[in-house]
Amino acid sequence: MKNGTEIYRREGGGSRASLTIEADGEANCLCVAAEAGGFRGEGNLFVDGEDIDFYGGELDRMDKALSGACRIKDAESGENFLEVFFRKDTLAVRGVIGDYQNKLQFGFDADQTLLRRLSAVVKKLKK
Fold first, then answer.
1. Taken in order 51, 57, 59, 62, is the CA torsion positive or negative?
2. CB-based contacts of 31: which residues, under 8 Å, 6+ apart?
3. Are 40 and 104 spatial neighbours (Cβ–Cβ below 8 Å)?
4. 53-95 pLDDT, tens per residue?
5. Which residues contact 27 (CB under 8 A, 6 or more apart)?
6. DSSP SS3 for 35
């Protein structure tokens, strides 16, 4: 991933986690690289044009309210997704990414600074 935006990174304490995403506006695709629990994977989430504003708005609302959930679903596979949601005072990140042969199911806890960065990348997609 050449021009990905680092959305989140945590190192140390024995639990490394990272999320990097690049927006491909021509294909309405989020190219996602995730690392958690010692495993790393990459995959694409294709987003329907009418869902771009919805996802961006949900992430913005979550950032302001510090509550809620947003699940970005892959319009092509129906299986891959990236989900962020609040569990008490903690932001949880979960997802499944990959291609037709290999998949990575991942999850980690993060802080709310992830929301603003993720929203900005989603909004780079073409409407």
1. negative
2. 1, 4, 21, 22, 23, 24, 42, 43, 44
3. yes
4. 999 999 999 999 999 999 999 999 889 999 999 998 899 999 9
5. 46
6. strand
The residue with greater pLDDT, 88 or 2, is: 88
Q: Where are the alpha helices (DSSP H) in 2-125?
A: 49-65, 113-122
Tokens at 5, concatenated: 């935006």
What is the value of pTM for the model shown?
Answer: 0.92
CA–CA distance, 92 with 112 (Å, rounded to integer):
9
Q: 115-120 — which CB contacts under 8 Å span 24+ positions?
A: 115/59, 115/60, 115/62, 115/63, 115/84, 115/91, 116/59, 116/63, 117/5, 117/6, 117/7, 117/8, 118/7, 118/21, 118/59, 118/84, 119/56, 119/59, 119/60, 119/63, 120/5
Span 89-110, average pLDDT: 93
CB neighbour class for 5 (10 Å; exposed up to 12, middle 13-18, buried from 19): middle
